[in-house]
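Data availability (excerpt). All sequences and predicted token strings are deposited with the supplementary files. A representative entry, Glycosyl hydrolase family 2, is shown inline so that the format can be inspected without opening the archive.
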Amino acid sequence: MRYALIGDELALYLRILQKKVTTARKIYLMRFWTSSTMSCMLLFAFLKLPAQEKYELNSGWQCRNVDGINATGQQISVPGYALTGWTPATVPGTVLTTLLNNKQVPDPLYGMNNEKIPDIYHTGRKHYTYWFVKDFSENAPTGDAQVWLHFRGVNDGCDIFLNGHRLTKDTHYGAYLRQAYNITPWLAKNGQNRLAVIVYPPQFPGNPNGGQGGDGTIAKNVGPQYTAGWDWIQPMRDRNTGIWDKVTIERTGAIRIKDPHIITRVPGVRQAQGPQSPAIIQVAAGLENATAKSITGTLRYKIAGETVSKQVTLAPHSTTTVQMPDLFLKQPVLWWPAGYGKQHLYSLQLEFLNKGKEDDKQAVEVGIREIQTYWNNHTRSREVAVNGQKIFIKGGNWITSDAMFRFSKERYDAEVRFHRDMNLNLIRIWGGSLTERPEFFEACDKYGLLVFQDFWISGDCNGRWQDPQKKDDQWTRRRYPDNHSLFLESVADQVKLIRNYPSLAFWCGGNEITPPADIFAAMKDTIIPSLDGTRYFFDYSNSDSMSYNSIGGNGDGPYGIQPIAHFWNERTFPFNSEVGSVGAGDYESLARFLPTENLVPPDPQTGKTDAVWNYHKYIPYNNAIDPYGKTNDLREWANKAQLVNYDQYRALMEGFSAHMWDWYTGVIIWKTQNPWTALRGQMYDYYLDPNACLYGTRKGATPLHVMYNPTDGMVMAVNNTFRYARDLMLELKTYDMQGRDSLLTQLFVEAGPATIQKFMSVKPMLDKLSAQQGIFFVLRLLNTDQQVVDENLYWLPDANGNYSGLQQLATANVSVKAVKAGTDSIRVTISNPAGGPVAFFNRISLVDAQHQQRILPVFYDDNYVSVLPGEQKTITITGAAISTAPGAEIEVYGHNVKRQYIRF
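Structure token line:
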């Protein structure tokens, strides 16, 4: 039933509104209700919600290539202009994303499809120059109210038009530079508006000749360099041209709050638990007066039950930065990196009151923490502390979430969660990409990952080395980009965008090189100190300001397969910003992007690989698979590759941890994720399916962890926490290939906070026991309740370095039970009966019942697990996908466990 809102009924509704909405909103609603009707249910539902002050223009866009369009932007942006022949557009998104979504190009992530897509270097820039149009409803406000249009990222240039009016005085350039326009004067009287944007590709797309950044000229722009190709990705054919980040409409009063700045000071050395001394909160904010009159009002903020305010007078058409009085917050709950404490976040409500009415407001999540750095004279590298406590950095290098800039809050959350699950505490954003989006930092705040943010310079393109694939010489490349002022303007803007996130820990001039001298000086001496002033600035990613290079070479690496002993015994750079190994997925992962005819393993005799594997940047496993037995079967090869993956990354993290504070203050793996379907450097594939690299890293980076040096046989524990670990029983056992166990020893041990504690060498015993077929070596720490605090299982080779016993390992007849533990969690228990062999290296997956395809993403608290004879292990699977996957099953298979599917 529908009712006209007239007379006494309208008066009643307006009295209700007086308690719920501002004057500007009441005027808008009154106009709406007096000219139309609606159902009572919809009315009351609407009354319960505040009017939307900010919303995103993320659907209903249309686009068309400029070729054949003779109209001007003024004409196209008139709502009456016919969009005949235009196609649906993806915004936020790139031109290539729109073409893919309209099935005009094949998926560039699959097989060799990327070669079928025209490259901008060969077609010319016009081929990827597009108009984007969006019709939207927004009434012109009354009184002093204002409406703003925001673009958070356009690559690379654009002209913007609204309702026949050009908003951009000059063409806007800068992939990283935000834009804001007051569109109040240009809104249509009838509320029906049209936005038209022409987007231009980078002026220098570069020749994608196979070099790092192609011929290097992509770096002449102020934009992402990887789009011309790198050693882990093929070129993006449109160079990521498009409205790649959010477009929003914002309503305010006369005063708009801009770029608030929140600083937290945490003096002294703090503990993660217990009472806290006060912390200091410092707040500043920009205020813009959009009117032609002077306005006096109050800027105030609320946090943790405290309110701080300040009266402000703003001149007409002015912008002013206001510094608020400091707040001394008693008993603060602090924010800590993952593994050290909780990630508590406060909500800070900032608002400007004009004659008692709210003109604008912003909510900022605040993590109270302070990050310090010191020079460690012993290691000769940078040491990091949070809230006064030193943190051993265990990090991963990150490119970007998606090569085509298809970003989402959900994907960011999943990827950052994977890093937390690996027991890492830092993510480095590599300098050939971008400043990561606010949604990424929100996830890092949530999961406790510190962020090391490079700016957009890379030594490969910017002249550090001689390179025959580059068009220009080193002297010329050293001056890239062409527009230094645009680079600096972009730096300043991006600092303001992300500076309030507690996870953001460091700035860095660039990847393996500083920007040109004038840019570098302005960033380091002026922009970063004045706009932030709280974070250490590294000159570049492997500079002496981070890690003194006494070895020679580039200051990072190596990359690729290393002997396990290498990670323990070969001393590398004291804070290594890039070191890593292989990362091929299992068969299910490979089959997602390799055509059937290319699902073949490297030749077991020659090591030669398929051309599509090479196209997807495969790093050879060399002879690492051979000790497990040569094979021509891809599924078997990929499963053996997971054994190598696990062993490599466990050894990497254990080897660095074993020399914590002696050789090293930190390590950052190159790399932990791929924004493309590459066959290297990843703990999970592009489709968010984890491989054994993730769980090997997780094991090796466990905060309180018992481990074994394969060279001298030393058993030791690393305590990467702030707490003393006492009364722990160390238990050392071996199991042969038949499952017979032998207790080597057990004794009570302890380990102090942030230390390594060595216990004993068991090498002679292990060498003797493993000589014939190899053995399983199991190390455990148990608490006084005899509960396992940490467990670590190694599979040791025979005297010849082969895993001959594993090649003949008998089948383990396990039983598997799965139960729903909640709407978004499942518990899987694997039981291995006594009297048989170790149930070795079991992969657990959540799959759909009909096709047995993995459901992604979900999260396993462990995987690739081994179950000892007479014991059981329980794995918990969590994730939102569980609640939306009825009829799913659990798939379990292992090295000597047959594949089975279990309903729950």
